[in-house]
TrEMBL record:
Signal peptide residues on this chain, from the entry's feature table: none
Alphabetical keyword list: ATP-binding, Nucleotide-binding, Transport
Cross-referenced SUPFAM superfamilies: MOP-like, P-loop containing nucleoside triphosphate hydrolases
Residues in ABC transporter domain copies: 4-234
Species this chain originates from: Desulfoluna limicola
Protein name: ABC transporter domain-containing protein
């Protein structure tokens, strides 16, 4: 049995389904991410685990123990909220010590535990500061220390980086990951940011409209998406409706792609932009098409080319190295090649 297990969990608000049919098993010490667009039910599931909400159907287990209806404070679950929810009238020390004082732990233990976690999150010396005297990143660290100090079995992080600027977000991302590994604490991280999910997670659950679409490692989800939604949500992809027969995928424009064996079925073709190669002269071979460059976008280390082939738009990404630089202008003709193994067929 996993460290945290959800079976058939459903939650409705006034009859509207926020999440349903949720079956998840999260392993001990795992960094597990809930990924999905706004409103797909991520926070609702987190709140069900924390005990701030009760499911209409289904059960939640922490280890062997069922916690579906247990009060939040008895669950051994720590949560960091999106807006941190710190107490503005308390100092940094008092905020972090709060949970331990509620548990009526002896003063000496409170002082040493708070000191240990303040050091761990890099806040030593900030004990007497007010919350309003802290930067966003420092507030984030207080929230993290406050939820860790009671040594919960599971740490829930609800979009903890969304209020930070891009550089601080990268820094905190690394810090959270390293803290999680050091403590070995089972962690659920909620985000709608695919980069965060891909870089941090041992496994990811992708949600859409209250349903879990797929669970897997970042590489599994990226390389073998279960459907078009997962393919599109985890990384950029070229997605086309297709009629598949006799080892060929016929796209709407009359383009026919030769598929890798064995012969599979599917309603959509997905091709990652980095799997498409471009050339100024015809390299020959199957799945090579003449197209027109519509647009080039330079992004520093890599370049994105938008290419029209028989009215279909393809996006191709290549490294901005000397060998890859094409030196083409919008309107120029070029050749676009899609290797068979770069094609994924998807059902829905
Ligand atoms: N307390 C509530 N009362 C009524 N409806 C709610 C409540 N909480 C959430 N919902 C609805 O449930 C659905 C799922 O919301 P939830 O907050 O879980 O999504 P989310 O994926 O976390 O979104 P976001 O990324 O924007 O936080 C949404 O349609 C939302 O409007």
């Amino acid at each position: 049995m996993g460290a945290l297990v959800l079976t058939g969990v459903e939650k409705k608000f006034d009859g509207a389904v926020a999440c349903s049919g949720i079956d998840l098993a999260i392993d001990e010490g795992e960094f597990f991410t809930f990924l999905g667009p706004s409103g797909c039910g991520k926070t609702t599931i987190l709140r069900l685990i924390a005990g701030f909400l009760t499911p209409g159907k289904g059960s939640i287990y922490l280890g062997e123990r069922e916690i579906t209806h247990l009060e939040a404070e008895k669950r051994g679950v720590g949560m960091v909220f999106q807006n941190y929810a710190l107490f503005p009238f308390l100092t940094v020390y008092e905020n972090i010590a709060y949970g331990l004082k509620l548990q009526k732990r002896p003063g000496r233990e409170v002082r040493s535990t708070v000191g240990r976690y303040m050091e761990m999150v890099g806040l030593s010396g900030f004990e007497k500061r007010g919350i309003s005297e802290l930067s966003g990143g420092e507030q984030q660290r207080v929230a993290l220390a406050r939820s860790l100090v009671t040594e919960p079995r599971v740490l829930l992080l609800d979009e903890p980086l969304s209020n930070l600027d891009a550089r601080l977000r990268d820094k905190m991302r690394l810090e959270i990951k390293s803290l999680q590994k050091t403590l070995g604490i089972t962690t659920i991280f909620v985000t709608h940011d695919q980069t965060e999910a891909l870089t941090l997670s041992d496994r990811i659950a992708v949600f859409d409209k209250g349903r879990c679409e797929q669970v897997g490692t970042p590489q599994e989800l990226y390389s073998h998406p279960a459907n078009a939604f997962v393919a599109g949500f985890l990384g950029d992809t070229n997605l086309f409706e297709a009629a598949v027969e006799h080892g060929m995928a016929h796209l709407s424009s009359g383009i026919a792609l030769r598929l890798p064996p064995p012969c599979k079925r599917g309603r959509f073709v997905s091709v990652r932009p980095q799997d498409i190669s471009l050339a100024m002269t015809d390299p020959g071979g199957p799945n090579t098409f003449k197209g027109t460059l519509e647009e080039t976008q330079m992004n520093g280390a890599w370049v994105e080319h938008v290419v029209a082939v028989k009215g279909l738009i393809f996006r191709a990404i290549s490294l901005n190295t000397m060998e890859h630089r094409l030196g083409l202008n919008p309107g120029d003709d070029l050749f676009l090649s899609i290797p068979e193994r770069g094609i994924t067929l998807l059902d829905r």
